[in-house]
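Hello, quick one for you while I still have it in my head. A protein chain has come my way and I'm curious about its shape. I'm sending you its amino acid sequence along with the backbone structure tokens. I'd be grateful if you could look everything over and explain what you see. Here's the protein in full, and shout if anything looks odd to you:
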Amino acid sequence: MTRTTNIAISPDERDMMLAALRLYQQVYDQTGGDLPNDILDIATDSDAHEAIDLEAIDALCERINV
């Protein structure tokens, strides 16, 4: 079961989240997935789950960009 979280964010915060997600995708592409460990720890909640793939990040950006 997927847990969801509802939070209120400002337009500035939304824009920063979108920029961070797009930067993650860009770095992933440029490094072949060799990302810094501290970033992977955030993306996986310290290996509690797999990081979402680039396609899922695209879908997430579409949902956030309202």
About this structure: Residues 11-64 form one domain.
